[in-house]
Structure formats: structure tokens, C-alpha cells
Here is the input.
Amino acid sequence: MSQLTRTHFETLDQDDSLAPMRNEFSLQDGLIYLDGNSLGVLPKATAAHISEVIQQQWGVDLIRSWNCHQWMQKPTELGDKVGHLVGAEAGQMLVCDTTSINIFKLAAAAVKMRPGRTKLITETGNFATDLYLLQGLAKLLGYQVQVVALPRHEVLDAIDDDTALVLLTHVHFKTGAMWDMSTVTELAQQKGALMMWDLSHSVGAMPIALDKVNADLAVGCTYKYLNGGPGSPAFVYVAKRHLSQFEQPLTGWLGHAKPFAFEDDYQGAAGIQQAMCGTPPVLANAALEVALDVMLTVDMHQVRRKSKHMGNLFIELIQQRCPWFEVGSPVSDEQRGSHVSIIHNQGYAIIQALIERNIVGDFRAPDNLRFGFTPLYLKYVDLWDTVDALVDIMTNELWNQPKFLTQNAVT
Ligand SMILES: *Cc1c(COP(=O)(O)O)cnc(C)c1O
Here is the structure.
């Protein structure tokens, strides 16, 4: 490989057909933001829309807005918009609650759809909430159900005739390693298990084809690559073929067939509507809608191409210029999502030193420095400048200062 230069990256920016998308986002001058995989950037159109929803819809139209501004339809409308991004035909997705809550709802429904089976399989080192929610569900169900969390290479072998559900995160939150959705789904289904995908770290970063890979269930966040805003509601997907047997345990009034009949007995709504529990977060939905509309203007294949290219270049720069780090992500872009982790035991302090220079990545214990590549608003030259700053911080041990070594609550 020839030695890369800053000029090389400047040229790539000039030729980048996605470059104009950066104008759709509100980014401080001088900021290099490599954390869009954790909290996406604010779309420029969001503030005006939220302000309109607050001042007119809430401020003036008040309770009439549930009907005249379709507040009640937003969970399904937004669900279908997410569906466009993840290859799901309309009527199988809903935007509601958090990813954590949705994992519980769908995992519980899965256990009901596979009576007599006692295993829930996932991988060790999966995102903590995914593990905890399965553990909580198993505890609630008593001895019938156990969680089997295994190292990645053992997961597929463990799926057997006693497995009710396999829950995996498509792109691993630390390493960026990506599962082949199609192969894994087929394998789980061959054993009679249901397959649930957590798309939190892949939705908005690459094309996904939920219907085509024959996924059973899926969940994911909207505040990461989708830019829905801090704490924006999550999504659920239940494949059409399962909707008639789908019964989730959080039987709130808005999942009822006739919520405004206020009957004493619960009777689940038909279809995906039954995944609803309570009142939707109207302001959060408004912010998410703007962000989804931005995302729906771009071709996900093009986004993925730029994301792979950026990941490859970043790894190449680290290998050429940064002997202090080991690359903790798959080097092959076919097996990697849209972020790259590099490993160092002083990772926390190094990230803090970068943040002080207005270059924002993040740290995931014990030793992962994580850099997310969001093709809609990141420039190629940002990669060069980030690695250049890393070289300075490492060569001159600039991370080794008390102010960088004390850990904050959120890393
Ligand atoms: C970010 C993330 C979550 C977060 O869940 P919340 O309920 O929104 O806190 C869950 N799972 C995975 C895999 C994630 O990456």
C-alpha cells in the first residue's frame, strides 16, 4: 500500500456524491463527530418542525391534534418509514417505547409461539440490555426458560430443538463485527427457533432486507444512525406470517382492539398495532419523522459504499501511522458494520484527549476506542485529521494528564 496523504482525502471529498448531504445537518464548525453510531447529529429541519408541533399542534390545537394532526397514527406511519429503510413491507413495523422494552415484548411473544422450548440463545458480550432483558424474562418465567449466552463462534452450534429464540445484534456495538443475517436466520429456523435481530447498530448505515432474509422479529434504536434525537422511540418488527399468533405481555390500552371503548377486558388489536403499550411520545415522534425523511432521500447502497470505504481508509491509516494500537474490528469490510474499534489499555484517556480537540469518538470498557462513520455528514478529510491528532497525542503522551484519566459517568 502506498503512503496516504491529506491530499488524497481532500480529493475524495471533492468527488463524493454524498457530500451535499452534510448541509442537511447542524454541525458546529471545526467539530469532527465520530459518534453518530451512539447519538446521531441534529438534522437542520428538526428544530423548526418541533417548534411548529409545540406552538401550533400542542399550543393551539391541543387535544384535537390527536385526530387533526394524526398524532395517534404516528407509530404506524413512522414504523412504515423505518420499514422502507430495512426492507420490511408496510404493516409489520411500529415505532414505540425503547429498544429495551421492545426486546422484552418480542422475546416474551416468541416464547409463547414456541411452547415447550426452554432456551433463549444469545452471545456473551452482546449489548448489556439485550442480555439483561432476556435474563429478566427467564427469571419471570421460572424454571421453564434459561438464557444461554455463548462466545460468538459457539452460538450457531448451540441452536437446537429446545431453542425458542435466538437474539443477536446484527452489528456488534464494540467490535463492529457483523453477522450474516440470511445464513443465521435460516440456521435458527431449521431448528424450529425464532430469530430476532437487534438492528441498533446497523439501521441507517447500510441496506437491510428483513423480509428477504425471512427474519421473524426485529428491534432497534432510532437515535443512532437514524438521527432521531436523544432517547427517540425505538422500532419493532414482527413478520407478517407471525402476526396472527403474536401476543405480547405488556397489554396496555393502546394495543387493545378498541382502545376508546374502554372495555374491562383486554383484547389485542389485530396486526402490529398490538405491539403498542401506552401513549406515544408526540414530540419525540415529530423529531424522528424529520430525521427519517432525510434518511429516505438517500440510497442506502451508496451510504454503505462510503461507510465501507471510510472504515477501510481509517484502518489503513491506523496501520500505517499508529503502531500503538491494535485494530479490534474485522479488517474485511464484508464482515464489519459502520464503526471501527481500536484497542489500547489507556483508551479512556486517549479519547478524552481527542475530545478536548473537538474530535468526538467514544470509549467502551475495557479498552475499545470507538469511531463511527456516518456517511451523510462525515468528510474523508476528517479521518485524516483524526489520525493525525492521534499520532500527536500518542507520540507526545498527551493523554497522560490527570484531567483525562478521571472517568465520567457516561463514557
Ligand atoms: C444502543 C443499543 C440499545 C439501547 O437500548 P435502549 O433501550 O434505547 O437504551 C440496545 N441494544 C443495542 C444492541 C444497542 O446498540
About this structure: The CA atoms of residues 81 and 115 lie 33 Å apart. The chain has a mean pLDDT of 97. The chain has two domains: 6-43+299-405, 70-295.
